[in-house]
Design a protein that fits this description.
With 296 residues, the chain is α/β, with parallel strands linked by helices. It has helices at residues 3-27, 62-72, 90-103, 120-133, 148-158, 177-184, 197-202, 207-214, 245-254, 273-289; strands at 48-53, 76-79, 106-113, 137-140, 161-165, 191-196, 218-223, 225-226, 235-236, 260-263, 294-295.
Length: 296
C-alpha cells in the first residue's frame, strides 16, 4: 500500500470512528451515566442485530452485568455460565431469568457450552438448561465429529440450534467456520456455525467469504477486532484494529443473516467498559454510515 493510500485508509477509519461516537451519543446517554429502558424505535426494520456475550463481563456479577447493559443500551444477551450470569442449577437459573426479564433483557443464545461426553444424559442436561431459559441457540465449544450424530438427535427433539464455535489455529478440530461447514454438511439444518471473527482471520480464512459460504447455517457471530491477524494477543476495541467490519455487515445483510452479532470483548477483564463502549459506538457508526439502523 502506498503512503498516500495508507493515509487515506487511516483518515477514513478516523472519519467512521468520529461518526460512531456521534451515533453512540444518540444510542446511549452522555457519559453513559443514566440507563435507558426503551429500545430504539427503528429496531424493527434493522438488518443487523447487535448483542453482547456475557463472557465480556466474566469478572462481574449478574447485577453488575445488567447495569452495564442498561448503560450501553443493549438488551440482547448471549449468556454463559460464568460468575452468576446464567447458572446451571435450575433454581439459581430461574432467579437469573427473573432478573433479566425485570431489566428488559432477552437471552438469545448460551455459550460457549462444552460437550465433553458422547452420552445422552450429559447432552440432554445442556439442552434442558437452554430450554428452561427459552434460548434457541447453543454456542457449542468443542463437540467432536463423533458426537455430532448424538447431538443431532437432541437438536431434533428440542428444536434448538447448535452453533459450533471455531477457535482458530490452536483448536484441534475447528480452526475455521469452513471446517465446521464440512463436518455438518448433510446433517439437520439446525446444526451450523458460530463464526468468531477473530479466530477466523487468525486461521487464515477470509471472514467475509466465510459468511457467504456458511450462509443459512450461520446462527451466531462473535465480534472482536485485532491489530494483527497473526497475533491472538493483539485484540483491541472494535474499530481500532484491521477487521473489515463494514464488509462483514454487508455480507450479513446480503445473506439475510437473522441472528445476532454479539460483542465478545476479551481483554481488560477487570475494566472492560471503555473498550466495550468504543466497540458499540464504532459498530453503530458503521451501520449509520451504511444508511441502516442498528438493532441493539
Amino acid at each position: 500500500m502506498s503512503r498516500m493510500s495508507k493515509k487515506n485508509a487511516v483518515s477514513r477509519r478516523d472519519f467512521i470512528r468520529s461518526g460512531a461516537l456521534v451515533a453512540s451519543a444518540f444510542a446511549a446517554p452522555t457519559g453513559l451515566l443514566a440507563p435507558l429502558n426503551a429500545r430504539p424505535a427503528a429496531e424493527k426494520a434493522s438488518p443487523i442485530q447487535l448483542g453482547l456475550a456475557s463472557y465480556t463481563f466474566r469478572n462481574f456479577t449478574r447485577a453488575q452485568l445488567i447495569g452495564f447493559m442498561k448503560q450501553l443500551n443493549v438488551f440482547e444477551l448471549n449468556a454463559k455460565d460464568v460468575k452468576d450470569h446464567l447458572p446451571i442449577d435450575p433454581q439459581q437459573q430461574s432467579a437469573a431469568l427473573a432478573d433479566y426479564a425485570a431489566a428488559g433483557i432477552k437471552l438469545h443464545a448460551a455459550g460457549a457450552i462444552y460437550f465433553p461426553k458422547d452420552e445422552d444424559a450429559d447432552i440432554r442436561a445442556k439442552f434442558e438448561y437452554c430450554k428452561r431459559a427459552g434460548i434457541s441457540v447453543i454456542v457449542a465449544g468443542d463437540p467432536t465429529p463423533e458426537t455430532l450424530p448424538r447431538i443431532e438427535k437432541f437438536v431434533k427433539e428440542y428444536d434448538i440450534r447448535i452453533a459450533i464455535h471455531n477457535h482458530g489455529p490452536e483448536d484441534k478440530l475447528w480452526h475455521s467456520p469452513l471446517d465446521v461447514l464440512k463436518a455438518v454438511k448433510g446433517m439437520d439444518p439446525r446444526i451450523g456455525c458460530c463464526i468468531d471473527v477473530g479466530h477466523t482471520v487468525r486461521a487464515g480464512t477470509d471472514v467475509v467469504q466465510a459468511i457467504h459460504e456458511v450462509g443459512p447455517r450461520l446462527f451466531n457471530v462473535h465480534m472482536k477486532d485485532l491489530a494483527n491477524f497473526q497475533n491472538k494477543e493483539s485484540q483491541v476495541a472494535v474499530g481500532e484494529g484491521i477487521m473489515p467490519v463494514q464488509r462483514m455487515f454487508e455480507a450479513l445483510i446480503a445473506t439475510k443473516y437473522p441472528g445476532f452479532v454479539d460483542l465478545e470483548y476479551e481483554i481488560h477483564a477487570d475494566d472492560p467498559m471503555p473498550g466495550v463502549i468504543a466497540s458499540f459506538a464504532y459498530m453503530r457508526g458503521v451501520l449509520a454510515g451504511m444508511g441502516v439502523a442498528s438493532k441493539s
